[in-house]
């Protein structure tokens, strides 16, 4: 089973830290391990042992730390982005072009600024059983970070402080059938995105796109404020098993 970790951005939302450290290599938790190590260890835990790290900015920092992946019991390969094929979908198409991915593959895509204890084995099992073109990991409960008011006739008739969003939200992981690499999504755009372009395209074509609803812990570390608020105790409680 192949896993693709998207870690190619320059980390503008993590500045000034990302001026010096590749954003996926920023240390987290009391173990001071790189953010990306949690993703690699989670993939290895679920026997996804062929991992492709799609990176560009400061890729050397990643390669110097993870090497060939043998100390994590996986095989790691690295691919720099093609400046002529931009965006997350562009990175996948570049991996296809370079022979890293093939149309007959099923593979997992993991966004490198997410930490989670999601059961990737169950996600991939559902993907295969459904014969899905894409299977999205979704959280059914996502708190809106602000209070929400309902207004009628100029008066506030209801107010909820930080309610659930009310619809499942993406948590930055999905399984894909390799045939998507042959899809002509939008040849006119200079930058192509997996979630913003590929998934709506597949749905429009009535391809089988399925949800994998999960209550698993997940946290987006992609913003400096979120990084600063990451709770070391919760991180150890939810993901400490990866280091045992």
Summarize the structure.
The protein is α/β, with parallel strands linked by helices and 244 residues long. The protein has 8 helices and 13 strands. It has a single domain (2-138, 166-243), classed as Alpha-Beta Complex (Spore Coat Polysaccharide Biosynthesis Protein SpsA, Chain A).
Describe this structure in words.
With 244 residues, this protein is of the alpha/beta class. It has a single domain, classed as Spore Coat Polysaccharide Biosynthesis Protein SpsA, Chain A (Alpha-Beta Complex), CATH 3.90.550.10. The chain is 29% helix and 26% strand. It contains eight helices and 13 strands. The strands form four sheets. It has a seven-stranded mixed sheet, with helices on both faces. Strands 2-3 form a two-stranded antiparallel sheet. It has a two-stranded antiparallel sheet with strand order 7-13. Helix 4 crosses helix 6. The longest helix is centred in the N-terminal third of the chain and has 11 residues, at 35-45.
> How many domain modules?
1
Q: By CATH's scheme, which homologous superfamily applies?
A: Spore Coat Polysaccharide Biosynthesis Protein SpsA, Chain A
The CATH architecture comes to Alpha-Beta Complex
Strand content: 25-35%
Shape verdict? globular
Oligomeric grouping of the chains: single chain
Percent of residues in helices:
25-40%
What descriptors fit this protein?
Spore Coat Polysaccharide Biosynthesis Protein SpsA, Chain A; 244 residues; alpha/beta; 13 strands; 7-stranded mixed beta sheet; two-stranded antiparallel sheet; single chain; 26% strand
């Amino acid at each position: 089973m192949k896993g693709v970790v998207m870690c190619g951005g320059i980390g503008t939302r993590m500045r000034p830290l990302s001026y010096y450290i590749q954003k996926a290599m920023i240390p987290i938790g009391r173990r001071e391990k790189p953010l990306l190590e949690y993703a690699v260890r989670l993939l290895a835990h679920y026997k996804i042992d062929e991992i492709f790290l799609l990176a560009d900015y400061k890729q050397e920092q990643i390669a110097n730390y993870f090497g060939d992946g043998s100390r994590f019991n996986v095989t790691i390969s690295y691919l720099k982005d093609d400046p002529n094929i931009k965006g997350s979908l562009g990175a996948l198409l570049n991996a296809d072009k370079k022979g890293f991915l093939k149309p007959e593959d099923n593979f997992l895509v993991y966004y490198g600024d997410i930490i989670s204890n999601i059961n990737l084995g169950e996600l991939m099992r559902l993907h295969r059983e459904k014969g899905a073109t894409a299977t999205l990991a979704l959280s059914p409960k996502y708190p809106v970070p602000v209070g929400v008011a309902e207004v009628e006739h100029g008066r506030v008739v209801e107010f909820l402080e930080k309610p659930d969003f009310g619809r499942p939200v993406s948590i930055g992981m999905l399984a894909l059938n390799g045939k998507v690499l042959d899809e002509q999504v939008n040849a006119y755009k200079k930058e192509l995105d997996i979630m913003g372009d590929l998934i709506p395209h597949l749905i429009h074509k009535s391809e089988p796109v399925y949800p994998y609803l999960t209550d698993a812990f997940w946290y987006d570390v992609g913003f400096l404020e979120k990084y600063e608020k990451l709770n070391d105790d919760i991180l150890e409680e939810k993901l400490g098993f990866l280091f045992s």
